[in-house]
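ok so i was messing around last nite and threw this chain in just to see what happens. nothing serious, just curious
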Amino acid sequence: MAKRFMLVSLVFILLLSACSSGGNNTENATRHTDNGNSSTNVSGEKEATEDESKEQADPFGKYAETITLNYGKEVDPTDKSLPEGDTPENNQYSRYIKEVLNIDTKVTWQAASGTNYDQKVNLAISSNDLPDALIVKDSQLRAMVKAGQLADLTEAFERYASPSVKKFMEKTNGVSQKSVTFDGKMYAIPSIQVQSDGVHQMWIRKDWLDKLGLEAPKTIEDLEKVARAFVEQDPDDNGKDDTIGIAGQQNGGRLYANFLESTNNTYGLDPIFGAYQSYPGFWLKNESGEAVYGSILPETKEALAKLRDMYANGLIDRELGIRKSASETVTDGKAGIFFGPWWMGYGPLPDAIKNNPEANWQAYLLPLDADGEFNAHMGAPSTLFVVVRKGYEHPEAVIKMLNLLVRDESTFDISVPIGHYPLRVPMSYTDESEYSAQALREVLAGTKTAADFTDPGYKLLAADIANIKKVKKEPYDNLDIEYWDPKADEGTWKRAYSLLVGSSSLTQDYNKIYSVLYSQTKTMESRWTNLKKLEDETFLKIIMGAAPIDDFDKFVEDWKRQGGDIITKEVQEHVK
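result:
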C-alpha cells in the first residue's frame, strides 16, 4: 500500500516542475530610483519607458509620516515569555517595525490559538467587519475572495516585495503563487514553509527509556510495550500512578494533519496512522490512478481499531480531545511520548526542561510500518496567508513588514518567540531545517566551516554556526540533554536543539506522501465543514470507545451520501 501511494510523491514533484513561477528574475533584481527607467527624447522632454507605478520601490522604505495598521492576532494564553510591561501588541517586534518602517501596528482583537482564532476570523468574514490585515487559512482566503473583501496585492507585491521574498516564492516553482492567485490577481502573501513542518515524528523521554532499560520503539508493538511501561513502572520515581504513555490532542486539536491544514500538527497521532499506511485527511491516488480520500479507506479503519485498543488499555492520554492544554502533559513531566514536528525545541520543551533539567527529549522517525519504513504525509509549501482588507490605504505595508522579517530575523532575540512579530508567517527555503541541521553537524565535526555555507537564502544559518558552541557541549555528536547548556543563551538553544535533535533525523530516507490537492473544490465550500465535523466526531468516538469500530463503515456511507462522492469527482477532475 505504501508503494501505491508513493506514486503521489512523483506526481507532486512533476506538478512542481511543470508549474511556472510567473514572476521576474529576482536573483538579478535591481532597485530603481524614481527616474531609473526614464529617458529623454529629441526635444529634451522626459519620456517614460515604463509605467512609473510598476517600478521597483524600496522594499524597506520608511514612511515619512506614521501610518497605522490594525490587525487581528492569534495568541497562546499559556505563553509567559514576554518581558514585564510588554504585551502581544507592544513588544520588541512591534517597536522594531515602528522604528524602521514607521508603521504603528495595533491589535484590533486577539483570540487564543487554534479553534478560538479560527472562529474569530470566520465571524469577521461573515459580518464583513475586518481589521486592516489578518492571517488566514486557505478556506478563509477563498471565502474572502468570493465575498470581494480583499485588496488586490498584485502590483504592490511586484513593486515592494524584496528580492529575497520573491526568491522564496520562486523556490516553490509557482505552487505558492498559484495558491493566492484568483482570476489572475494576487490576493494574499503566502507563507513559504519548510517541508519538515509537515513531518510529525516521535518525541520521547530517553531518560525514561534508559531508566527502564528500553529502546526507542520501532514498531507499533514496541510502542505499546514502551507506553505501557511508562504508565505502569513509575518512570518519574515519584511513587504515584500519574504518568501518561502517549500524549494526545487537546480540545479543538487535530487527530492528524489534513490537506487544508497539512503542517505543524502538535500532539496528533499522525505517525500511528502512518504505520498502517493510512493517510486520513489527504487526497491520494489509488492503483488505478484515481483520486481517493484517505479517511474512508480500509487502512484507516485498521489504524482506528489499534488506537481504540491502545486507548482502552490506558496507553493514550485518558483526556484525549478533552484536555485544555496538551502541552501541560509535557511541561509538567507527566507524558513520555508525543508526536510533533521538528521545532519542538521552541516549545513545549523549554518549559519541560526548566521544570526538570534531566528531561531528555529526543526525536525519531518512528514507528515504522510492516515493511520497516516510516511514512509521513507531507504538507503544502503554503498553508497560511496574510490578507489585506479592500480599501486599506497602504496595502504595501504588510509586504514591507514581511521583507523586514526575512532580512532581520537572524538578529532578533528569539527568547521572545518570533510568533509575536505582527502578521508573521514562515518565509524559508523548503529544505531550510534539514540543510541547517546537516551544516551544524559538519561544522561541529570540524569537516566544514562557516565559509562553506554562504547562500543568504538560509537566512539564520550564519548566526546558527556562530553561536552553536555557546549552547552545545562536547561531545558534539551526543545530543542528550546533559550535553547542552540552555541557560547560556536560551534563544540560541531553542533553535539549535530543534535543528540538531528535531531535524537531524529528517536527512535520512523516508516515504513522503503528498496530497494531490491542498485547496477546496466548489462543493467543498458549502459541504466540507459538515463532512469534516462528521469525520472528527466519528473517529474520536471510535478511539475513545463511545462508538463501535463498525461505525466506521456507516461513516463512509454517510460521508459519500452527504457530498463526499460529488467532491471526489471534483478532485478527480482537478487531478486530470
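not much to say yet. Residues 1-52 have pLDDT under 50 and may be disordered.
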